[in-house]
């Protein structure tokens, strides 16, 4: 009855691991590099890399449920190894973009859709969790806020309803506890529509100091994002942010509240949880 958390050091995976431990569920944590395991004593830790299929059989030995991140390059082999190991249910951190009609062809969506497709019918029951916008995206501003108390934003009026990683993990835990797949796999968002500038203001409140927003055009944003991402991914991000300025371009759902039986954690609360990252 062991549950394996693949990516247990991740922002969401760590909350999944903590939730399983708190519930007293037998749990195993995986990391790609054992030297980075930092779970404290008493945790069964294994090395597993979804892109290295030979690492999977030992990690999956005796496991009946798995939480994992989307990795299309490893999904087919993971499905086969999970079937052989007798895994019954796989809860996959996918993306809400697979449910958004105008996002279907962007490369981020394609990767998540491909992972879902490769795991569907592989043997274990697949339950995708589909958050649309992570509150944690705001951590991309941390370095500039720490050093200059300024954020450069493209389309600062772009709206989304970001969701706290803790709530995403809570929905994943509900899925691991057997909640109705139709409920937990629905489009998952936070409760409040916020512009990017609103998010910065809430971070400023949490930090206790003013933060300036500097609006930039898509050209400069392309240069800034372009340093670490492919042009296709940069296009997808800019398209997504631009849509947030348009009617019907953002989404707010009640999935979290229906699954968790409480409202999602607010962005103000997320900002307080992460204030140290921005100081
Ligand atoms: N940004 C958004 O708005 C958005 C929207 C929808 C969905 N998502 C999804 O959310 C994810 C980010 O979640 P997060 O913030 O919790 O991520 P995170 O903190 O970056 O953690 C990612 C975890 O995935 C693990 N991992 C990556 N590649 C792996 C591999 N090949 N084999 C095994 N483990 C691997 C890492 O393991 P190690 O600890 O071993 O490095 C790490 O623990 C994105 O990747 C995306 O799929 C994001």
Automatic annotation (TrEMBL):
Top-rank taxon, per record: Bacteria
Pfam families reported for this sequence: NAD_binding_10
InterPro entries listed in its UniProt record: Ergot_Alk_Oxidoreductase, NAD(P)-bd_dom, NAD(P)-bd_dom_sf
Domain NAD(P)-binding as annotated: residue spans: 7-176
Protein name, entry field: Uncharacterized protein YbjT (DUF2867 family)
